[in-house]
């Protein structure tokens, strides 16, 4: 049995690069940007008026002029209109180009507009005020979004703004999510008294959608021949197989034997952890990786977030993510010499600390508890008593806010 840290290191040693592809920018949400995105023009691209009002030459105001003749009205989207003398001003709207003959904008709130005139009502006017200067945010050629991050709505707005109609993104691995077990029936059917509906594969598929991975689903009966036949095909077709169930000591737990019979090299079986102890991980000579997760739903869920998602993120080149930690909010004990992934509810106190309140549930078969919980708190294997106020690594599986 290996430690959680060693299991993680074995998996991270199998990080892959799946290459790049281009996708329409509107479809890039949730993908990983593969190249730096650069500004095609300055941002803003011109001296942008930032308040509705009038544009004047500050020099005239400084000399004591407070009433200006309105020469013209300039909307956003129009070419700039210049004043001819310093006694004039341009009525101008937010988003318009500042006329080169002016240098200061006074907002309507500080003006009185008369018949063709604008009178400044305030004494405090600063040269250059209410102007968002050309190139102040980014200059042409500057990086506006660095590679190796998930494409977010804000990044999509940058892509739109710089005219990047297609974005280079990391290619995604082909993933099969495979459930096993004769007790499992289709979700849409009514189970017999000794059956249950399949749920693990849908959980895994849903979790992977965050990364735009569209996994194929497959179900295997508890039968050695059928298991081997289908896994053989999957090992050719997919980059990663995510199995659930059939990896423990039951008479019908065929998965490890089936995989080894197909030439998949076992890199470990059993991790010093709860839940998820019987986790099996291996590699096929042609490259496919096999994450055979224990079938208990909480075990599958935990191993997915603790091992598969970090492998996926590393393979997609998502930049180094900080390790998250939280403050344990109540004393707890765990006696077995296993790393314990305690289910917790997360909250933030008034000092800005992330608090983890135990929400233990009834073990790794109780997946109803996952709906209420927010995260796993990872409690070290070499300790039995955990005191409120101590800080541990945390693995959130819900967005924090
Ligand atoms: N003698 C021992 N028995 C067990 C041990 C052990 O060390 N010695 N380990 C236990 C632990 S820990 C776990 S975790 C489970 C792992 O079992 P398997 O990976 O072999 O999974 P199954 O036996 O196929 O199923 C376990 C449990 O999970 C339910 N399940 C499975 N797949 C799904 C699914 N897709 N959706 C919903 N529920 C699923 C299944 O019905 C079982 O109740 O083994 C312990 N036993
Ligand atoms: O490790 Mo099992 O995953 O406790 O139920
Ligand atoms: Mg079993």
UniProtKB/TrEMBL annotation:
GO cellular component entries: cytosol
Keyword S-adenosyl-L-methionine (UniProt): no
Pathway(s) where this gene product acts: Cofactor biosynthesis; molybdopterin biosynthesis
Pfam family membership, one: MoeA_N
Cofactor requirement: Mg(2+)
Top-level class of the enzyme under EC nomenclature: transferase
EC number(s) from the headed UniProt entry: 2.10.1.1
Record-level Gene Ontology MF annotations: metal ion binding; molybdopterin molybdotransferase activity
Keywords assigned: Magnesium, Metal-binding, Molybdenum, Molybdenum cofactor biosynthesis, Transferase
Domain MoaB/Mog residue range list: 176-315
Entry superkingdom: Bacteria
GO BP: any one term: Mo-molybdopterin cofactor biosynthetic process
Function: Catalyzes the insertion of molybdate into adenylated molybdopterin with the concomitant release of AMP.
Protein name: Molybdopterin molybdenumtransferase
Upper classification of the organism: Bacteria, Pseudomonadati, Bacteroidota, Cytophagia, Cytophagales
């Amino acid at each position: 049995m290996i430690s959680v840290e060693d299991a993680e290191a074995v998996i991270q040693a199998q990080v892959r690069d799946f290459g790049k592809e281009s996708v329409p920018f509107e479809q890039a949400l949730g993908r990983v940007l593969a190249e730096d995105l650069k500004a095609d023009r300055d941002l803003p691209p011109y001296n942008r008026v930032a308040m509705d009002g009038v544009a004047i030459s500050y020099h005239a105001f400084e000399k004591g002029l407070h009433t200006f003749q309105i020469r013209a009205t300039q909307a956003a989207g129009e070419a700039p209109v210049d004043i001819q003398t310093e006694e004039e001003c341009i009525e101008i709207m937010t988003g318009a180009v500042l006329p080169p003959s002016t240098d200061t904008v006074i907002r309507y709130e500080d003006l009185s507009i008369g018949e063709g005139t604008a009178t400044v009502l305030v004494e405090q006017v600063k040269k250059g005020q209410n102007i968002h200067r050309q190139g102040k945010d980014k200059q042409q050629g500057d990086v506006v979004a660095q590679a190796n991050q998930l494409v977010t709505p804000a990044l999509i707005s940058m892509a739109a703004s710089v005219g990047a109609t297609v974005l280079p993104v990391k290619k995604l691995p082909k993933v099969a999510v495979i459930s096993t077990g004769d007790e499992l029936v289709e979700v849409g059917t009514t189970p017999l008294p000794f059956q249950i509906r399949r749920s693990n594969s849908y959980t895994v598929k849903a979790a992977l959608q965050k990364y735009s991975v569209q996994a194929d689903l497959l179900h295997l009966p508890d039968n050695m021949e059928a298991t081997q036949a289908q896994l053989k095909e999957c090992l050719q077709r997919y980059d990663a197989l995510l199995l659930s169930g059939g990896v423990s000591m039951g008479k019908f737990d065929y998965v490890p034997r089936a995989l080894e019979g197909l030439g998949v090299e076992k890199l470990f079986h059993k991790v010093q952890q709860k839940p998820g102890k019987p986790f099996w991980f291996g590699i096929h000579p042609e490259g496919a990786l096999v994450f055979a997760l224990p079938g208990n739903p909480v075990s599958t869920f935990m191993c997915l977030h603790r091992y598969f998602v970090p492998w996926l993120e590393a393979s997609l080149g998502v930049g180094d993510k900080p390790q998250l930690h939280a403050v344990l909010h109540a004393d707890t004990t765990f006696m077995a010499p296993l790393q314990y992934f305690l289910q917790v509810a997360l909250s933030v106190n008034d000092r800005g600390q992330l608090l983890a309140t135990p929400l233990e549930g009834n073990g790794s078969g109780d997946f109803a508890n996952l709906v209420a919980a927010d995260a796993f708190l990872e409690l070290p294997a070499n300790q039995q008593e955990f005191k409120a106020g101590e800080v541990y690594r945390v693995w959130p599986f819900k967005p924090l806010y």
